[in-house]
Design brief:
By secondary structure, the protein is an all-alpha fold. It contains 24 helices and two strands. A two-stranded antiparallel sheet has the order 1-2. It is elongated.
Length: 657
Amino acid sequence: RAPPPPPPPPASPAASRPAPKPAACRVGSRGWSCAARCEAVLSDPEAAGPGSASAAAEPVQARPPGGSEDTEAAVARLIVEALLGAAASCRLDDVSYALHMEVLAALTVCLSAQLFSELSASVPLPTVTAALGAPPPLAEALVARLLKLYIDQPPRPANPEGRLLGSIGSMLWLPLQVIASFFRAQEPPVELADRSLQVLLLLTQHLPPALFPDPMLSNHFLAALRCVGDADSACGSGAEAEEGRARQGAGFSVRRLHDALCARLPEEATLVLLYLLLHGNRELLDHALSRSDPDALLLPLLRTLAGMLSPACRLRTSRVYMLLIILLMLSQDGGFVSTAHAVMLPTVPWFKERLLHDISVGSLLVVVLVRTTQYNLSRLQDLYVQTNCLAALANMAPCFKRIHPYAARSLVTLYDVLARRFQKLEARRAHASPVELADSEELSDEALGSAADFLRMALEVLNVALAAQAGLQQNEHLVYAILERQRVFAPLRGHELFWDLIENVFRVIDHFGAGLSGQGPASTKESPLQLDKDSDRRTPPLPTTARSSSGSDGVWSVDLVLAHIGEASRSWKADSLEHVPDPRFTYEQESAPEEFFTPYIWSLVRDRSGLVWDPLRVVLLAEELDDEPADALPALLQGVDVVEDVDEHATAPGPPA
């Protein structure tokens, strides 16, 4: 007999691979091969050679070849490479919509390994290292794709199968849904644009020092976001080309990106994206500053900031930080501030403290910043919030133009609150014993120095506004507010720290206050606006409401006082004031921004991604500073015209990292 035929050779790994998927669900030219190589690496760790994984994502520490840690890193690189390639190149249609959702969810899960360890811990996180170490071409393609999905807002496709049955089922289910809506609040479903933004923020976070100790390494996703160019504009200059500002192949315009940001600004994730673009992307920053409708960007920010200070809102200090940083960056451009003062609003329905009519966007910005400063003084005691609010006001001061009466009075009230706070602290230090000075932090030299710095900043805002190029003819309401509350400047007129700035204020008072009692400007010796030694009142007092159409009876109406200020401004010379350097404040990012942004971004993803993590194992997210009680606000915040004593016994925490 002939010998039996030899058994067939075992099937090779290539022969056992699944057939390629249809074109609509392909993961790119390398996606399915990466998945096949994952199986090979799991079965044979030695098969993971130098060419089997992406060379851009190398392990952080050298590990022995063939070890379990090296195998985990190789598998992680292959999985993450497949997910990144699918998200960047897979075609989007009704069939692949669900695939995109699952790919982005899988990327979020891969990056979530960071939730279970501190930023300073040297725990190996292979999936995080592989994702943040992606090569630049892949990072650029993925950033452009995620931004395009965020701008386009693709809707969730309808199920084409069973539409009739689905309609009948929806009609039958509608009564139950209506009843259930009264008992529980249902969050809207997560859309593809939301998940794209979340993944974009996670990928553009700063590199954790524990995983990437080399300072020369950079996040290619963050660099790609900063270099995104405008597809509608012409090619930039040579210098811009060298910096990588003009990026080829962008499928969207900066104008559409700006409009999409403005449309979704109440969302915190959109707020973080706006910060990243304004801070790092020159194209979008220039476009936002050059637009003729600054209200499109400012009004959502101001409404959100003002709404967070209401008693019914639970305060998130991290969100306040982001809002104030963005406002500070926008206030650095004088043209943007001038345009904001030129845009008028007939009314502001969402501002509940007072009815505001015919107010400019710039004046509304002043009102909200002053209100935030007063809230911080009475409740938060946060030096970071205080500094940013006063810095933004100082940047805006040279561009004040036709400031609203309510905004003008709020600036004077802000000085009054800070002055009384400084005087009270100085008096307490003068009567305190050496033991109390040594043990009390609120009576320390640093506390007194901070109070003096904030008070001087408020005085600089008034001085720069009075000496602005626009002139006092266009800021007559600011002069009126100073004349009306001039007594608040007298106590510190001779103080060594503030005398120069307060002296400028009194020069304005002397010039514009002369003649308000029927006497001419020449009557300076017996001017009724001089300080009475026996009383803290001026004669005659300026009324806040018009009670007479003429000044013959000794009572001046508002219109007559404003007319007098307009006449006196013709003889006013700006060089009558002592020169005050124009204070300019710019935002500078902290040296370790990941300490703030990484936990903050992950808190947003945890709350709004639709994914669930075990809260007992999450260690990255610290206790949030959202424990502000929702009780009634003090009278200080019910209107900037009301001045109340500020609690001096609260300890001010340091600025955030």
